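Lecture 7, part B: from sequences to assemblies.

Below are the input chains for today's worked example.
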Amino acid sequence: MRDGINIARRGVPVVALVTEDFWAQGDFVAQSLGMPDVPRVQLPHPIAGTGEAHMEEVAEQFVHQIVERLAA
Amino acid sequence: MNEILEAPDEEAALEQLHDMGCTDGLPVVIPTRARVDRLVLASGLDADIVLGEMGPGMGIATVEKVAIAAVMAGCKPDYMPVVVAAVEAASDPRFDLGPLQATTHCTAPLIIVNGPARNDCGPVASGFGALGPGHRANASVGRALRLCLINIGGGQPGVSDMALLGHPGKFTYCLAEAEEDSPFPPLHTSLGFEATDSVVTVLGCEAPHSVLYSDNADDPEDAEKLLYVLSVGLANLATNNAIFCSGTALVVLGPKHADVLARANMNREVVQRRLWELTHHPTADHDRYGQQFGSRFSGATYPAFAEPGNILVMVAGGSGLYSMVMPNWGGADHANSPVSVKVRHDLYCEVPGLAAE
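Predicted structure of the full complex, as structure tokens:
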């Protein structure tokens, strides 16, 4: 979330990817850094370590949402 | 009946308790007659029932005395059955409480809660930050046991509690198992209880040591690598377990790490056995670093733990890259054995005024 906000502050379109377990923390960080509406998409938890095949499945499942948020 | 202290107000009472060495150094809730009676009632037991004898002072832990400690610690009435079970477990001779309090090692009783009492007598946290601040039941239940150790067991630093430094878990050390996030049956079922039982397991152990492992489902050696790093933390040559070769230590698997092991079709027993194998060290290392404690191994390697069952494995914490290991002291007649006691939370007693809270 912090990365997403830093990128947004540079005027670059951004979507923060936040897993389910860290969603509330993402909201907290966005609020405390003064950018509560920074675009974000919720991913299942965990992602890291789950293997290439699973990560490709997740990417396939969420890529359209991510693009939609970027285009909004 | 205990001696009743008097003070003009709560502020003065607090100073009096600090001066008498009755606190852990932090402010306590003043144990007034009404507050103590309320927690005695919540225990469902008579005030003068003896729960055990607490060393090294060999004080008698009655329900009333334990309720006093629980009030001071900030416990809600709901927590009392867990506090009572923790005191019973710590007073069990197999736990070696007197020597545990007296040793120069840093050991502290960790309270592990399993079964329905996790919610009925809490909630006792098992997820994010379960061993950290912010969880009232974890904080006050563990603190209540500590105040019993101080005020009933007589543990005073540098006098009867000779821990050279101690560790922060000596203030409070309590968590529940994240049974719903675990691929394994609950810990207490591996210790002879039914899944529907509520059980408190007390283990004297060091502060938690973090174990980092970044898992990778595509790696066929994922589980073995995780078990290796866990074993390094659990019984490296700096631990009592590796040098005394006794005692029981604990692995608290984060849910993500537990899944790595489950993916490799490992159950708790397989995990324990592999950790036991991986905590064998070269005998030459014991001869070099632990000779003062007796060279007694003839083979090329020796086990840090007598058997795989001396490595307890449970699941708790948030889901990420970390687990925790707690080595232990392993001294005294029973090698400071963990003790499990059923929580009697079905002794219903209505506490006046509680419904209004």
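Note for the exam: The beta strands of chain A are 16-19, 40-43. Keep this in mind when comparing with the next example.
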